[in-house]
C-alpha cells in the first residue's frame, strides 16, 4: 500500500465504542487532543479514569527506527487494578497507511499466553510500554515514505483498551 504523495493525512482506523466493552465495564472514549484519549471505566465500585496515548516522533527519515511508546496514566485519584493479558504485559502497536489499511502490527504472528495478570496502577502513576518499528510491513518489505497513523492497544480482559491514532510522517530519502 502506498502512502499519499501529496502528504494528505492517513485515514483514521476505527476506535472501539462503549458497545464494544463488556456489560459491567463500559469504555467511553473522549477525545482530548491529537493522540490522546481518556477512558472512563464504569465499574460496580465506581468510576475509574485512565489516559491512554501513543508517543512517537511526528517525522522520521526513511529507513530509520521509529521509537513508539504506549503510555497509560492513572488520572483517577485512586489506585486501579488492571486485568492485563500475557506473562509480561502484552501490548500491541499498529501502523496504518493513508488508506487506513494496516501495514504493520507489533504482535503480527505472535502468540500471547492465555494468562491473566492483575497489575496495580497507583493513583497518578504512569505505565510506559515501548517498542521500535523498523519501518517494515508485516510482510517484511520497507514501507514507502508518506503519512501513517500509529495506534496502541493495551491487551486487557476481555477487550483491549485502544488509543486514538498518532500521526507519523516518513520523509523521503534525501539526496546521496
Characterization of this structure:
With about 180 residues, this protein is an all-beta fold. It contains no helices and 13 strands. It has a domain at about 50-170: Intracellular proteinase inhibitor BsuPI (Immunoglobulin-like), CATH 2.60.40. The strands form three sheets. Strands 4, 7, 8, 11, 12 and 13 form a six-stranded mixed β-sheet that branches. The protein has a five-stranded antiparallel β-sheet with strand order 1-2-3-5-10, with no helix packed on it. The radius of gyration is 17 Å and the shape is elongated. Residues about 1-5 and about 15-45 have low confidence and may be disordered.
CATH architecture of the domain at 52-171: Sandwich
Low-confidence stretches: 1-6, 13-47
CATH class of the domain at 52-171: Mainly Beta
Mean pLDDT metric = 79
CATH topology grouping of the domain at 52-171: Immunoglobulin-like
- Rg result: 17 Å
Largest sheet: 6 strands, mixed
Helix share, percent: under 10%
Distance from N terminus to C terminus (CA atoms, Å) equals 26 Å
Helix tally? 0
N-to-C order of helices and strands: EEEEEEEEEEEEE
| Anisotropy-based shape | elongated
Beta-strand residue fraction = over 45%
Beta-strand segment tally: 13
SSE-based structural type: mainly beta
* Name of the CATH superfamily of the domain at 52-171: Intracellular proteinase inhibitor BsuPI
Layout of SSEs?
Elements: E1 26-31, E2 36-43, E3 46-55, E4 59-61, E5 66-74, E6 80-85, E7 91-96, E8 102-105, E9 116-121, E10 126-133, E11 146-154, E12 161-162, E13 166-171
Parallel strand pairs: 4-13
Antiparallel strand pairs: 1-2, 2-3, 3-5, 5-10, 6-9, 7-8, 7-11, 11-12, 11-13
